[in-house]
């Protein structure tokens, strides 16, 4: 299968160096490289704008300046997209069916979810201008044909924004939450200019100001990444923990008096602090499992970020599942166990994160088990991550 293969895109910097120290943090630019452009044109099977229009494009927009000089875009109906392009409209090809495998490759490369990676194309016409703005995504662009000029500057107005904004747009409450300065009317004076020619790569970090100009026809590849945020990681872990408790799944309509809502929220905040205290980094960041055997004196705690359930029962056995919820993926282990194990399993399943567990506890809940069986059960549950060794 053909791949974009990003290993040499940022040369002389390698992909690991780019991912760890540049992506989302600073501008990166590489000069034109005819070899890279030729390789990508072959991989994408795009040598001219005709090849782009021959693809299965599910969404294409016209990109233009309106009378006020602001950048506008409008969906191009597929039947008329080519005529509009020929009439001088710059086209933004956003959903290209043939690019789905490239989007999966990009998601794997940068360890983000499949929906968070997009691979798109711009077909710029001479005279196309994109007015100064910023986007809430990290952008990597590679020039495939023609020339396009970019001006890029850090954003002191709203660093690391979660929403896009362009000069002249109304300011939204979302942006005001972290606005530092008055909104600028033009790109800041410290902007750097880059002339992208075939094989040039440019990384515009999330939130950086940018504007573009085209003096000739050009086709550029755009890799767009929606990064996971530091707060998303912890909020996802907190929600995984809260969702186990029916209290937090209660509906809250707005029918209470302000006094009732205030006193409920006061109690909820205290409970939330307790839940937060039970979050453990060792549950949120999955470390490799130990190879140490379980001894009779080995002690465990009920781990967080996991849930236990019974999938089916027959006379002698129970089929159980343990799901371990992760930020990027959730793993579920299915096990067949003797029914005598169930009381101890249910007891451990209902425990709060951080509660201690050892072999005497298991024997108390499932008195039919031998010490050896209790030891095996704890070892098995450690592998599913329902228990964590202390
Ligand atoms: Fe942009």
The total of beta strands comes to 19
Can you count the helices? 12
Runs with pLDDT <50, length 5+?
none
CATH superfamily of the largest domain: Cupin
Estimated radius of gyration: 28 Å
Main sheet: which strands, in order across?
1-11-7-13-5-4-2-3
**CATH architecture classification name of the largest domain:** Sandwich
Q: Any idea of the CATH topology of the largest domain?
A: Jelly Rolls
- What is the structural class? alpha+beta
Between the first and last Cα atoms, what is the distance in angstroms? 46 Å
Could you say how many structural domains there are in total? Answer: 3
Q: What is the share of helical residues? A: 25-40%
Return the average pLDDT rounded to an integer.
95
**CATH class assignment of the largest domain:** Mainly Beta
Give the overall shape, derived from the CA principal axes. Answer: elongated
Relative strand content: 25-35%
Ligand catalogue? fe (ii) ion
Outline the biggest β-sheet. 8 strands, antiparallel
InterPro entries: JmjC_dom (IPR003347), NO66-like (IPR039994)
Enzyme class: oxidoreductase
EC number: 1.14.11.47
Keywords: Iron, Metal-binding, Oxidoreductase, Ribonucleoprotein, Ribosomal protein
Topology of helices and strands:
Elements: H1 15-21, E1 28-30, H2 34-44, H3 49-53, E2 57-65, E3 71-75, H4 78-86, E4 90-96, H5 100-109, E5 117-124, E6 129-134, E7 138-145, E8 148-153, E9 165-166, H6 173-176, E10 192-196, E11 201-204, E12 209-213, E13 218-225, H7 230-242, H8 258-278, H9 281-284, E14 300-302, E15 306-313, E16 317-325, E17 330-338, H10 342-350, E18 356-357, H11 359-365, H12 371-384, E19 387-389
Antiparallel strand pairs: 1-11, 2-3, 2-4, 4-5, 5-13, 6-9, 6-12, 7-11, 7-13, 8-10, 8-12, 14-18, 14-19, 15-16, 16-17
The structure holds fe (ii) ion (FE2).
């Amino acid at each position: 299968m053909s791949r974009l293969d990003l290993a040499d895109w940022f040369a002389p910097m390698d992909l690991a160096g780019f991912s760890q120290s540049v992506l989302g943090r600073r501008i990166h630019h590489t000069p034109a490289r005819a070899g890279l452009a030729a390789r990508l044109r072959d991989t994408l099977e795009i040598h001219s704008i005709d090849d782009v229009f021959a693809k299965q494009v599910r969404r294409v927009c016209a990109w233009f300046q309106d009378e006020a000089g602001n950048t506008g875009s409008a969906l191009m109906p597929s039947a008329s997209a080519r005529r509009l392009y020929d009439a001088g409209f710059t086209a933004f090809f956003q959903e290209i069916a043939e690019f789905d495998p490239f989007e999966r490759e990009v998601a794997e490369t940068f360890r983000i979810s499949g929906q968070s990676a997009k691979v798109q194309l711009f077909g710029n016409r001479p005279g196309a201008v994109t007015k100064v703005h910023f986007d809430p995504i990290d952008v990597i662009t590679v020039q495939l044909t023609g020339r396009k000029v970019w001006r890029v500057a850090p954003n002191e107005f709203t660093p690391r924004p979660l929403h896009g904004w362009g000069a002249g747009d109304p300011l939204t409450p979302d942006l005001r939450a972290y606005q530092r300065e008055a909104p600028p009317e033009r790109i800041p004076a410290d902007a750097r200019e880059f002339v992208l020619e075939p094989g040039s790569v440019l990384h515009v970090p999330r939130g950086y100001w940018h504007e573009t100009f085209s003096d000739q026809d050009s086709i550029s590849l755009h890799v767009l990444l929606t990064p996971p945020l530091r707060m998303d990681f912890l909020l996802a872990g907190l929600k995984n923990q809260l969702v186990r408790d029916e209290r937090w799944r209660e509906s809250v309509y707005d029918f209470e008096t302000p006094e009732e809502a205030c006193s409920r929220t006061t109690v909820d905040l205290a409970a939330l602090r307790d839940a937060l205290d039970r979050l453990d980094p060792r549950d949120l960041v999955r470390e490799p499992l130990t190879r140490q055997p379980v001894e009779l004196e080995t002690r465990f705690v009920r781990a967080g970020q996991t849930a236990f359930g019974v999938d089916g029962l027959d006379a002698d056995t129970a089929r159980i599942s343990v799901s371990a919820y992760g930020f990027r993926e959730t793993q579920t282990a299915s096990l067949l166990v003797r029914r005598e194990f169930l009381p101890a399993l249910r007891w451990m399943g209902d425990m709060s994160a951080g509660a201690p567990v050892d072999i005497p506890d298991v024997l108390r809940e499932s008195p039919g088990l031998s010490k050896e069986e209790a030891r095996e059960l704890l070892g098995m549950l450690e592998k599913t991550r329902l228990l964590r060794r202390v």
